Amino acid sequence: MVALARSAIGLMFLLLLRAVRHEPIKRAAVRKNLVKLLILGAMLGFNWIFLFEAYNHTSVAAATMCYYMAPVFIILLSPVVFGEKITRHKGLCALAAVFGMVLVSDVFSSGLHGARGLAYGLIAASLYAAIVIVNRTLRDISAEDRTILQFAHTGLAYVLYFGSIADVSAQTAALLSYIDPVVAVLLSLTLLHESMSPAAIFGAALVIGAMALSERKPDA
Fold first, then answer.
1. Is the per-residue pLDDT at 152 higher than 60?
2. How far apart are CA 160 and CA 145, in angstroms?
3. Burial class for 187, CB neighbours closer than 10 Å (0-12, 13-18, 19+)
4. How far apart are CA 160 and CA 139, in angstroms?
5. Which residue of 65, 151, 177, 191 could cross-link 105, Cys pair, CB 3.0 to 4.6 Å?
């Protein structure tokens, strides 16, 4: 029900955005990519379902850590799917981001428990990785149209995200997704007044630092 509500609200937002901007959906582009868009929509829906079920069967920290294995899957698959070379610089930044994310999740304190929840989290991560990979194969379709057909969520966030995937490497898109849990932790700290351990603070800084370094060309 949560996944359905998010999809419905996001879809209404995007349709309203299209109406305000007087921009009709480009049907030719949709027809050209229809099969992939329908598959993506299904994967995105099940991605949320498995993620929310993971939260029901294990700790938030453990579910988050499993879910954010998705960027690792993307980086490992990018040489096979897109022919992108994993450079030592990019690889080290990815490892730093993964370690930082583990610290942010505070899984060392809460521990891993709930085999079903961990499995659901990894399934959600696999679907997320597949969504990023398939989205990069879409051609001649705007970010708004591809998002409307896939559904939406908070609408604007997904428009920006899916719109950027086509313009960056799969590895970069994967690394940037690690900002998500960091922002979530920071919002819980500022808005919900939840505590944040020194390790989590260090992890957040590590993730952000890895993001910045990953997009800098290493010195020759």
1. no
2. 12
3. exposed
4. 17
5. 65
